[in-house]
């Protein structure tokens, strides 16, 4: 008999509910609900619309009834953001979006308390102001009354699972995105929290990825007229769920999870926390089955998404396909940006900021939509090359294939440019890697799939994978040197 499980996957701009049906050899996906995930700015603060998102979870459960008995469900989301609960388990405030300005300057404030090298040694995380530790530090400094009311901090996937089951836990992969997690001991870094003035009692018990944590509450079952469903804590960080679905057969491989963010890394048996990884600002995260993801967080399709929003505000409503076509028509290698430059993180007029960046760095200033898009595409592809070089320097490994997974693989132009820029084969797909990984972990938890290698084999059978080979490598080598000059 086939088995059906439900994956609810929240990305930074949209969410979807997908039923995975497993027949013993393949997983078949059926998307039953898709919805927008739009932040709300109120009183100068950017919030996640968490009650609306929970409403969408309920809509997903209602729609799932049409597909028969669902054995289990699991939730994955983006990293670093959280909700605070009081002693009665009530949500104190709407979770704040990682792009909110409250963390501005908090890295420097943290380094005054804990020297940079000591903080990295304790947590092994890439330094980004959006990280949970620095969000909490901003509350310590600016809203201590809010923290005084808080009993527990739950990361976003754990918060939604709590709303469904009443169980307060921290799944390991999402906890490891916080800069409050000890990658070596694989537990909270309590000393880091104390030193930053964060009450360690806020930190819930950590559970392994692939843990049965409870059942849909009787109240929700009555409200929605559905039967109880088991709730499993898969890799709550969507990148780590996606990594489970990477169709790699070799042990040493590089992956690129492509979406609003690009996360490029490799899978290790143990974390790397040393002077080299600190210098290159590489992060360690916990993955499934005790694995460590050693990776770089890179701004990804956000640059295209936010540029498109700006052009729409100006009355020019391009589709993503139209933007890709305009980029293809534009002359190559005219100018580059560092996608991770601070000016590209906030929402707003990205095209104008790209022009100013190019002017500041003495490059050609792109004038047309196509030239701006070409600049974004090539800069991302070249940034990926730089990240692979840094990973190889840290690990001593040499990667022959880059496994590109996630929604960004629908953009075949970006996949092609990445192969050319990096000078290696790019394996592109599955598109729904996060959902596949979420579902595979549920099936491994229930014993229907025996182990990670078997899960990856099944995913590879279940989805078409495209391959791109490098071309025009000499021109890309020259462009890479110009890119490095532009981003230094």
Name the descriptors:
488 residues, alpha/beta, Nucleotidyltransferase, domain 5, 2 domains, seven-stranded mixed sheet, six-stranded mixed sheet, globular
Question: How would you characterize the overall build of this protein?
Answer:
This protein is α/β, with parallel strands linked by helices. The chain folds into two domains: 3-233, 2-Layer Sandwich (Nucleotidyltransferase, domain 5), CATH 3.30.420; 246-429 and 450-488, 2-Layer Sandwich (Nucleotidyltransferase, domain 5), CATH 3.30.420.40. Helices cover 40% and strands 20% of the residues. The protein has helices at 50-64, 106-113, 116-123, 132-142, 144-148, 156-165, 172-175, 190-195, 218-224, 238-244, 275-279, 302-313, 320-329, 350-360, 369-395, 412-422, 433-445, 452-462, 473-487; strands at residues 3-10, 14-22, 27-36, 40-42, 45-47, 72-76, 82-85, 152-155, 170-171, 181-182, 187-188, 206-207, 211-215, 230-233, 254-258, 261-268, 283-286, 292-299, 401-405, 425-428, 466-468. The strands form six sheets. A seven-stranded mixed sheet has the order 17-18-16-15-19-20-21, sandwiched between helices. It has a six-stranded mixed sheet with strand order 3-2-1-6-14-13. A hairpin with a 3-residue loop joins β1 and β2. The N and C termini lie far apart (57 Å). The model has no long low-confidence stretch (mean pLDDT 96).
Radius of gyration: 22 Å
Q: Give the CA-based shape.
A: globular
Residue fraction in strands: 15-25%
Q: What percent of the residues sit in helical stretches (DSSP H or I)?
A: 40-55%
How many discrete structural domains? 2
**Strands, total number:** 21
């Amino acid at each position: 008999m086939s088995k059906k499980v439900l994956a609810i996957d929240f990305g930074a701009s949209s969410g979807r509910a997908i039923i995975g049906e497993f027949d013993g050899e393949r997983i078949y996906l059926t998307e039953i609900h898709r919805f927008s995930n739009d932040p709300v700015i109120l009183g100068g603060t950017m919030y996640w619309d968490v009650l609306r998102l929970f409403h969408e979870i309920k809509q997903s459960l209602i729609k799932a009834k049409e597909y028969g008995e669902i054995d289990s469900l699991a939730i994955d989301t983006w990293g670093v953001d959280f909700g605070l609960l009081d002693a009665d388990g009530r949500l104190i405030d709407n979770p704040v979006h990682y792009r909110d300005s409250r963390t501005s300057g908090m890295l420097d404030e943290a380094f005054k308390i804990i020297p940079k090298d000591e903080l990295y040694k304790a947590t092994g995380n890439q330094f980004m102001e959006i990280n949970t530790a620095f969000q909490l530090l901003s509350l310590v400094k600016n809203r201590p009354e809010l923290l005084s009311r808080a009993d527990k901090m739950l990361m976003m996937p754990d918060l939604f699972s709590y709303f469904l089951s009443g169980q307060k836990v921290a799944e390991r992969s999402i906890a490891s995105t916080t800069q409050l997690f000890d990658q070596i001991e694989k537990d909270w870094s309590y000393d880091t929290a104390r030193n930053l003035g964060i009450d360690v009692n806020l930190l819930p018990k950590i559970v392994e990825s692939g843990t049965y944590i409870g059942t849909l509450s009787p109240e929700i079952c009555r409200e929605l007229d559905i039967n109880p469903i088991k709730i499993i804590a898969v890799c709550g960080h969507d990148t780590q769920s996606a990594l489970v679905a990477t169709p790699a057969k070799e042990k040493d491989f590089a992956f690129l999870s492509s979406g609003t963010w690009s996360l490029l890394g490799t899978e290790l048996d143990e974390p790397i926390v040393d002077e080299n990884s600190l210098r290159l600002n590489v992060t360690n995260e916990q993955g499934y089955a005790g694995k460590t993801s050693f990776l770089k967080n890179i701004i990804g399709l956000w640059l295209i998404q936010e540029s498109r929003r700006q052009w729409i505000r100006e009355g020019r409503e391009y589709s993503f396909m139209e933007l890709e076509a305009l980029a293809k028509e534009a002359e190559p290698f005219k100018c580059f940006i560092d996608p991770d430059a601070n000016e590209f993180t906030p929402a707003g007029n990205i095209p104008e900021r790209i022009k100013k960046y190019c002017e500041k760095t003495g490059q050609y200033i792109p004038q047309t939509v196509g030239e701006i898009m070409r600049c974004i595409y090539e800069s991302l592809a070249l940034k990926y090359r730089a990240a692979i070089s840094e990973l190889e320097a840290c690990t001593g490994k040499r990667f022959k294939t880059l496994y590109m997974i996630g929604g960004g693989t629908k953009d075949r132009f970006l996949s092609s440019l990445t192969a050319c820029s990096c000078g290696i084969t790019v394996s592109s797909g599955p598109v729904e890697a996060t959902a596949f990984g979420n579902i595979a972990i549920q099936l491994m938890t229930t014993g229907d799939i025996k182990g990670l290698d078997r899960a990856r084999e099944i995913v590879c059978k279940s989805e078409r994978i495209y391959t791109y080979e490098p071309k025009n490598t000499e021109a890309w080598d020259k462009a890479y040197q110009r890119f490095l000059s532009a981003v230094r």
